[in-house]
Amino acid sequence: MNPPGRPSSESSRTASRPDDPPTAQRGLILSLASSDLRHEKVLNACLLLALTAVFAPLLILFGLKNGIVETMRDRLVEDPRNREIRPRTSQVFERAWLDTLQQHPEVAFVAPMTRQISTSVKARIAGQDNLIDLDLLATDPGDALVLENEATIPTPGECVLSASAAEKLGAVPGNEIEIEVARYLDGQRSAVTVVHRCIGITSPRATGLPVLFATLDTLEAVENYRDGRAVPELGWPGGIPEAQPMFDGALLALPGLLPREDELELVVSTGFSTIRLLPPDERPSSDLPPSAHLYLLTTIRSGIRKHLETLKGQTAADSSPAVTSTLGLLDAAIGDVESLVYRAEHDSAAAWVKIASNSGYFLARELRKMPKSERLLELVRKSGTPAEITRDETRHANLLMNIEDAANQYADALRELSKLDRDIVLETFATFQEKVTALNLEEQIKANDIIVNHVKDYFDTKRLDMEAYQRELQSL
Questions:
Q1: Does the pLDDT of residue 10 top 60, yes or no?
Q2: Which domain holds residue 296?
Q3: Most exposed of 106, 118, 210, 258 (fewest Cβ within 10 Å)?
Q4: What is the distance between the alpha carbons of residues 36 and 133, in angstroms, rounded to a whole number?
């Protein structure tokens, strides 16, 4: 036994345990855990790789969502150009239709435009010689392309320049911008000018092209002047348009019978659709010579079959005198309607197929001249004399006008063909292609193959993609 008052070593150790720090316990736990990891190192490595395989893709997707995807989405929503819808082809719309479109809840702004060929002008700072080419764009209150790109909406007599146009001109807000508009009329070049005050410059995000934003009145004045019309409010000379008479029919009194070719010419691109020689019992009571041959021209198209079936259906359901008399008037006016429509469709298909083929072939030839004409004009502007520049600009402008006219005629022909029976149109094309093949016109044969595909595409989609059509024709 230990002496009294002296604790044994055992009791001393026992008394000291509650006061030991937890460091030793933690060290023991870490030692056991590391030993277990080393003992099961293969299993633990597999678990680590499994967790990595699960979480790594999730982290990447999370980063993409909050990085690249969110940035692209913000740009898509905030950039007005990404919300802009432009028609791919030129169409004529009534102002009332555009006003109705503007009222649509999903439409923020509508900007009418003139023909694309009429928007190219030259401009410079008033009093300077640095003349550059730029395009006109119509704008109006609410135009996000201007407002959301650090500029304000111009009023009449004012303009806004794109960053590219301002850089080429060396312009700043407050400068007077002189716009030069040239036209070629009857082989003569003439030009007029108008001055607009620059009130702002858009950020580069708006467009990378040299553009001048102005009111629609300015664009319409440019188009009218280039079409040969006067613009009195700006003092630009030209002709005064006159209202043209409109007819839904005409009666021709001729001393002799018309050849079939002349009959077709009277219903192609004239607004009339059918021509018929009136028999003696249908001649109107008038002072016309009895020996005259009378031809009736009407605006009735192949759609009359549909109207006739509607009238016949109404007659079966309700044989009222009004409906019956309407049918009687139709029969009295144009005779056997069904046979007339069938013959008119064949004649119309033959005429429009010829127009489509010729205008498409001519359009292909003119489009192939464009690259060479542009290169030549660029070279002449750098080193040519004023007379040479004027000469080549005239040639280039005439080429552009030829392309626009041919494209419009080609589009009209496709639209007219789409109104006829598809089988009749394709059969007529096949017949026309045989004639062209017999003449060994290789380029027109190739053009006709493309044109037939365009007709089929328009029949199927009812969408006139003139840009794609022109690219295909140009590749001949």
A1: no
A2: 249-334
A3: 106
A4: 79
Find the farthest-apart pair of alpha carbons in the chain and give their distance in angstroms, rounded: 165
Contact, 356 vs 414, CB < 8 A?
yes
Q: Which tokens sit at 174?
A: 């407050």
**Domains in the chain, number:** 3
Which of these three, 314, 334, 354, is where a domain ends? 334
Dihedrals phi, psi of 175, to nearest 5 degrees:
-70, 150
Residue at a domain's end among 287, 313, 334: 334
What pLDDT score does 15 carry?
42
Over 70: is that where the pLDDT of 339 sits?
no
Q: Are residues 214 and 281 in the same domain?
A: no
pTM of this structure: 0.45
- What is the rounded CA–CA span in Å between residue 2 and residue 9? 10
Mean pLDDT of 305-325: 41
Residues 100 and 228 occupy one common structural domain: yes
Tokens 């053009």 correspond to what residue? 447
**346 shares a domain with 415:** yes
Cα distances (Å, whole numbers) of residue 48 to 37, 39, 61, 471: 12, 15, 20, 58
Task: Specify if 17 maps to a domain.
Answer: no
- The set of long-range contacts for 281-285, using a CB threshold of 8 Å and a minimum separation of 24, is 282/332, 282/335, 284/251
Same domain, 257 and 304: yes
The answer on 416 and 431 residing in a single domain is: yes
Q: In terms of domains, do 270 and 353 share one?
A: no
Residue 13, domain member (yes or no): no
Amino acid at the residue 375? R
Region 339-352 average pLDDT: 58
Contact 292, 254 (CB under 8 A): yes
Instruction: Count Cβ atoms below 10 Å from residue 137 Cβ, excluding itself.
Output: 21
- Are residues 199 and 104 located together in one domain of the fold? yes
Q: Are residues 324 and 347 in the same domain?
A: no
Mean pLDDT of the chain: 77
